[in-house]
Design brief:
Length: 350
């Protein structure tokens, strides 16, 4: 790790968060690495995200860092020195574009002579898309394309060819056989009903009706995903009331979830990390959109717009991330009939 790559360039890449954004880097990084086997690519991120990089190309490395150990300017200077010493990059691709990565790329550019490029987040057009009045409703550049453009500016153009972390196969789920039935001809539907912000969450009472409708189908198994005790309590209540519903919360880590998702016939989710995790396994994601919109460029890799469920309201989208309070106070963008959601799901899996 101390020696520079003699056969080609070493490209340092940063993206520190969040779960969905890390997942969105993978189709591009795998395609990029396979397109340039003579180069070395190193993604630096939080250590726990290393679980996503299943079957990665040999010339793509993941370096996990504890960002709490590098706080403030002096901490970032220390991180810069460590990365420069260990990785010795020729190029720096900043896929995050936050203060922390801006400082790092400035240090690499000034003191190491590293060629640096960073993501253009398109803030102006996103603001026009979500403003209260006179919204400019048009499809914005996808985040995948924005990532790709960073590497093009570094002289590394490529064509994305990613399909799944598991290629044409499925992940190994034998360790879950104690609570998962063997999959035969039945359909497995994942339900990921939670998201970080309220503007992205389909009301839990409505989602339970969707779960009830799906579990009533003899050939459908419903597997619920989530994180933390509050979400687990909601799902456990569903499992107690509706036969055929299985909780996968607290069973494993990101790696295990990806392996199971690869066996699903569909993942029902919000505009959330689970949509992007399904995308990494080639699993169709039936996504429900409220305050946010696919127009902002965050639809999952190879997902279809016809699998997006949303209402044509004048007030939406009102937010890029779903973190703004509802203008009307009632989140009317999520007044989608559960029977319509269930119908769309059953049509998709049959």
């Amino acid at each position: 790790m101390e020696q520079r790559n003699k056969k080609g360039r070493t490209v340092l890449i940063t993206r520190f968060s969040a779960v969905g954004d890390i997942a969105m880097t993978i189709p591009l990084l795998y395609s990029l690495s396979e397109s340039y086997p003579e180069h070395r690519f190193v993604l630096v991120s939080r250590e726990r995200f290393g679980q996503f990089f299943i079957n990665k190309p040999a010339n793509l490395d993941f370096v996990g860092v504890d960002l709490n150990a590098y706080k403030g300017l002096f901490g970032l200077i220390s991180l810069y020195k460590e990365l420069d010493r260990k990785i010795k990059p020729d190029c720096f691709a900043d896929l995050h574009g936050v203060l922390r990565t801006k400082v790092l790329r400035t240090l690499f550019g000034l003191f190491s002579g590293t060629k640096c490029e960073h993501i253009d987040k398109g803030r102006k057009e996103k603001k026009a898309l979500t403003r209260k009045e006179n919204k400019c409703r048009q499809q914005l550049t996808s985040t995948f394309q924005r990532y790709r453009e960073v590497f093009t500016r570094l002289g590394l153009p490529f064509e994305p060819r990613f399909t799944s972390l598991f290629k044409d196969g499925k992940g190994d789920i034998s360790e879950f056989s104690t609570f998962l039935p063997q999959k035969g001809n039945d359909k497995w539907v994942g339900i990921a009903p939670f998201a970080r912000h309220q503007g992205k969450i389909y009301p839990i009472e409505k989602m339970e009706k969707v779960v009830e409708a799906l579990s009533a189908e003899k050939d459908v198994k419903v597997i619920c995903f989530g994180n933390g005790p509050q979400e687990e309590a909601v799902v456990n209540a569903w499992c107690a009331k509706h036969p055929g519903v299985i909780s996968f919360i607290g069973r494993t880590n990101f790696n295990g979830e990806l392996r199971l998702i690869s066996h699903l016939d569909a993942m029902v989710c919000m505009d959330s990390a689970n949509m992007h995790m399904a995308s990494l396994t080639g699993t169709p994601a039936i996504s429900i959109w409220g305050a946010t919109s696919p127009l902002a460029g965050f639809l999952g890799w190879n997902q279809k717009s016809e699998d997006c469920i949303e209402l044509p309201l004048d007030c939406r989208p009102c937010s890029i991330f779903g973190n703004k309070p509802c203008l009307h106070g009632d989140y009317r963008c999520m007044e989608i009939a559960p029977e319509n959601v269930a119908k769309r799901i059953l049509q998709r899996i049959r």
